[in-house]
Amino acid sequence: MSRAVRVATLALLLGACGGENPPPQLPASAMPSATASQTAGAEPPDPLGPQPTVATGAPFVPPAPQVFAGTNGITVWLLERHQVPLVSCDIHVPTGASSDPRDKAGLAYVTANMLDEGAGTRGAIDLARAIDDLGAQIGTDANADASFVTVTVLKRNLGKAFALFGDVVTRPRMDSAEFKRVKDLWANELREREKDPDATARVVYRVALFGADHPYGHPWDGTIKTAKAIALEDVRTFYKSSWRPDRATLVCVGDIDKAGLSSLMDAAFGAWKAPATPMLAPVVPPPPKGPWPRLVMVDRPDAPQSVVAMVKVGVAAASPDKAPLWRANDVIGGSFTSRLNQDLREAHGYTYGAHTRYSSSRGMGQVVAYAAVRTDATGDALGAMLADLKKFAAEGVAPDEVERSRSQARGELVSAYESDEAIAGRLASGASLGLGPDFDGKESQLRDSAAKADIDRVAKQYFDPDGAIIVVVGPRARVQPQIDKLGMPAPEMRDAQGNVLTTAK
User: How far is CA 322 from the centre of its chain?
Assistant: First the structure.
């Protein structure tokens, strides 16, 4: 029944029940008079009164782990969380791709890959089955600054899983048959990487910014040429010099206490002794130096779309600029509602997504703006990206962006501390870069307190495209005429591994 019909029916029933006498009427003097605002069509006053003001809450400050010395000199970070019967641990050494020999880029990467290809008394298949039987996850990896082994498992299976974890860290088998298999798979991955314009752009802008001889100048997983040069003996030697207990930090998060963890460590790492040779200091690469090419292009005649990128020198993880840079990055390209994404994707339809990011590394890293765009709109998309970045650098952030980025920063940190595995990974990453156990707590307050002037300063320093390297990966015959209209200089041509083919004139 419609509202109008219900109202009419109710009126008839009331009339039938109420007899012939009409209800008494208020005198005209008692009738409420219409205010000027009501007669003008404005909203009447809220009968509940004005909306109360809610005070801004304090930023989330995560708890810091306790730090103590473990078995054989291992540094331990422990954050107890007993809400869920789960434990996640991450052990690392501060040696990564920045320690690769010049002609053997990817050595740290393939060494990490070999750690779980058989360990202790188990071959690769038996080890994988033993891990699966426990419902555990054990992983290995390496980045620019460190190498990692991780384990996550339910508490009831922690003892057995931690023993396997210890074997992977301290007793990798490094079998020749497994190395051949890993190396064949690695070569296939590198060939596939060269077919991906986005992956190619990441390789090329890193080499262009840092230079091929810089510790950060090559991709972490190496190149086809350098992978061929790495032998199993190289891997064994790298492991022996890098993986030693007096250089290792173990981060554990979850349903375990100090006594329980110490007992597990004694059993798993008790036989792992540091050699008598001097301990290697972590590599802290120098800042990259120019002169840099203005425009770098990789010709991909078969590419279905182009990738455009701008890259500049960034910050080290411990830099005081990192906190306001997080806020600036969020505004210009670090979230879906960022300026770049709203312009290039929503307003113009050049791309499915435009982004900015900055690296977190022991030495100075890079700041990048990038997008995969329609080939026919490569020039227009690049022009729009550079214009957005230029405006951002010149004008800074708007007042509403200051508050929105503060809210985003709070939300990001809260979400990062939702699971034991994520917390362990975050703390281990910070520890590998030399950051303290209370770094996240301090960083949270610095992000939150960053004022507009702070954000504007880093926006100008790190996102102004003047002096930046522009990288374009795509079919040159189609995109070069478009880019020429932007007044760009002649490009420096490079291949998919970043090698210079022809220099700009």
Answer: 14
174: left (phi over 0), alpha (psi -120 to 50) or beta: left
Q: Are residues 261 and 299 in the same domain?
A: no
pLDDT at residue 45, as a whole number: 82
User: Using CA atoms, how far apart are residues 190 and 10, in angstroms rounded to an integer?
Assistant: 78
Backbone angles phi, psi at 355, to 5 degrees: -140, 165
Q: Are residues 77 and 143 in the same domain?
A: yes
- The rounded distance, in Å, linking the Cα atoms of 478 and 109 is 37
Residue 53 inside a domain? The answer is no
Domain membership of residue 431 (yes or no) is: yes
Residue 291, preceding peptide bond in cis (omega within 30° of 0) = yes
The parent domain of residue 476 ranges over 295-502
What total of structural domains would you count in the chain?
2
| End-of-domain residue from the set 269, 303, 330 | 269
Over residues 213-228, the pLDDT tens digits come to: 999 999 999 999 999 9
Q: Which among 269, 303, 319 is the end of a domain?
A: 269
Burial class (CB in 10 A: 0-12, 13-18, 19+), 120: middle
Closest by Cα among 79, 78, 58, 53 to 68: 78
Q: Which of 408, 421, 436, 411 is nearest to 60 (CA)?
A: 411
What is the DSSP code string of 45-76? PPTT-SPPPPPPPPPP-PPPPEEEE-GGG-EE
Rounded Cα distance between 136 and 126, Å, is: 14
Residue 296 contacts residue 490 (beta carbons within 8 Å): no
* pLDDT tens digit sequence for 402-446: 999 999 999 999 999 999 999 999 999 999 999 999 999 999 999
- For residues 108 and 257, state if they share a domain: yes
Residues 176 and 311 in one domain: no
Alpha-carbon radius of gyration of the chain: 30
Whole-prediction pTM value? 0.86
SS3 87: strand
The span from the CA of 51 to the CA of 379, in Å, is 49
∠ Cα 207 211 217 (to 5°): 55
Return the ∠ at Cα 271 (arms to 267 and 275), rounded to 5°. 145
Stronger pLDDT, 19 or 380, i.e. the higher one: 380
Q: Give yes or no for a contact between 473 and 202, defined as CB atoms under 8 angstroms apart.
A: no
Show Cβ contacts of residue 205 under 8 Å, excluding neighbours closer than 6 positions: 296, 309, 311, 366, 368, 469, 471
Question: Any idea what the CATH number is for the domain that residue 398 is in?
Answer: 3.30.830.10
Q: What is the pLDDT of residue 261?
A: 98
Does 283 map to a domain? no
